[in-house]
């Protein structure tokens, strides 16, 4: 039996997780093990990720995660536990160095995007974000009057994420860095160039500076195929890219390692502003189930079925609040299940 660990987390997480498990259960028979995670785990155990949960996740076939965090746990005190530490601990603990964030501009949602329709039409890009290195995981220091975060990358870390990007590309990889300023970016650029020349000569490669990439994402998003970038640039650019789809409530992600279970989660956060109202958009969560089926369980047909059910529900007029409509989480779930 396929084992899936479900981590609903905080905020709207516990509202959208049951809906996602319903969609998953409609496609494949799974044994689900649910655990507290993030702020909910801090409240119960004093830490965002317990050893038991990490061990359980490592033994699963895939991990489905909703969202963590909320005002209750917001603090600048480094000594206090933070919900995000659970997410970072899970990524690091499972060795999930490759984060895939596909961005498709669905015709049904063109008018929901703040960008003009003719700009976003045809956009179908993939952000490949390095997820276990860089400034997120470098040494941190803090004194009364100063602070620092180290950004470091090794050749090997750049090579393995570059391979993921080139393997996923249809035509071109746009490698995004800040090589005019940062030493890590100059290493990044050299290594990506070598990996392309030696292993993927058929894929086109271009290097774009991150500030320019941010601009092109809103001015000419449809020109991108695969965007390959380091941890923090990828964090920022993927939120920006989400708006092409109309709402951050539409973007799924897959975090993969070198063989063990992957973590599948929406890009959006725990949305404390709408928690408890039953109106959260569950579609990014359903699309994350799609990625779980594809990358975690290698069930391509089932993955496509979920994605196309979401597309058809939207084409049929489904709109949650973030998309300018008034469908509730339950109504959105029913609309997608009806299409399945
Ligand atoms: C994301 C989130 C996380 C990140 C936070 C919650 C730590 O923004 O998955 O994009 O920065 O990676
Ligand atoms: Mg982010």
Task: Describe the structure concisely.
With 340 residues, the chain is of the alpha/beta class. It folds into two domains: 1-100 and 251-340, Isopropylmalate Dehydrogenase (3-Layer(aba) Sandwich); 114-245, 3-Layer(aba) Sandwich (Isopropylmalate Dehydrogenase), CATH 3.40.718. Helices cover 41% and strands 19% of the residues.
> Order of strands side by side in the largest beta sheet?
2-1-3-12-11-4-5-10-8-9
CATH C-level class of the largest domain is: Alpha Beta
Beta-strand percentage range: 15-25%
Give the helix level as a range of percent: 40-55%
Question: How many DSSP helices?
Answer: 12
Distance between the termini: 22 Å
Anisotropy-based shape: globular
CATH superfamily of the largest domain: Isopropylmalate Dehydrogenase
Based on the coordinates given, report the CATH architecture of the largest domain.
3-Layer(aba) Sandwich
Encode the helix/strand succession as letters: EHEHHEHEHEEEHEHEHEHEEHHH
Number of folding domains?
A: 2
Chain oligomer state: single chain
Query: Helix/strand-derived class?
Result: alpha/beta
Largest sheet, in brief, is: 10 strands, mixed
Count of β-strands: 12
List low-pLDDT spans: none
CATH topology of the largest domain, by name, is Isopropylmalate Dehydrogenase
Q: Give the bound compounds.
A: 3-isopropylmalic acid, magnesium ion
Mean pLDDT: 96
């Amino acid at each position: 039996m396929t084992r899936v660990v479900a981590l609903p987390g905080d905020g709207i997480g516990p509202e959208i997780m049951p809906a996602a498990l319903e969609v998953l259960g409609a496609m494949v028979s799974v044994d689900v093990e649910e655990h507290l995670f993030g702020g909910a785990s801090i409240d119960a155990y004093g830490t965002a990720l317990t050893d038991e949960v990490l061990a359980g996740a490592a033994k699963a076939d895939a991990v489905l995660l909703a969202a963590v965090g909320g005002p209750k746990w917001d603090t600048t005190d480094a000594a206090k536990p933070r919900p995000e530490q659970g997410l970072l601990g899970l990524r690091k603990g499972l060795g999930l160095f490759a984060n895939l964030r596909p961005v498709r501009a669905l015709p049904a949602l063109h008018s929901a995007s703040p960008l003009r329709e003719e700009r976003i039409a045809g956009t179908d890009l993939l952000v490949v974000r390095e997820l276990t290195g860089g400034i997120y995981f470098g040494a941190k220091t803090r004194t009364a009057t100063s602070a620092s975060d180290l950004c470091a990358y090794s050749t090997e870390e750049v090579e393995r994420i570059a391979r993921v990007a080139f393997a996923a590309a249809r035509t071109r990889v746009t490698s995004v860095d800040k090589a005019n300023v940062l030493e890590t970016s100059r290493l990044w650029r050299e290594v990506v160039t070598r990996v392309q020349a030696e292993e993927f000569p058929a894929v086109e490669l271009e290097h774009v500076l991150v500030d320019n990439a941010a601009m092109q994402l809103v001015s000419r998003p449809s020109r991108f195929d695969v965007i390959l970038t380091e941890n923090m640039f990828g964090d920022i650019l993927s939120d920006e890219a989400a708006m092409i789809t109309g709402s951050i409530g539409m973007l799924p992600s897959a975090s993969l390692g070198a063989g063990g279970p992957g973590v599948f989660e929406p890009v959006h956060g725990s949305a404390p502003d709408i928690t408890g109202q039953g109106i959260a958009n569950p579609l990014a969560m359903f699309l994350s189930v799609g990625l779980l089926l594809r990358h975690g369980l290698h069930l391509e047909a089932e993955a496509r079925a979920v994605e196309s059910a979401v597309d058809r529900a939207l084409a049929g007029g489904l709109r949650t609040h973030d998309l300018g409509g008034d469908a509730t989480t339950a109504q959105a779930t029913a609309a997608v299940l009806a299409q399945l």
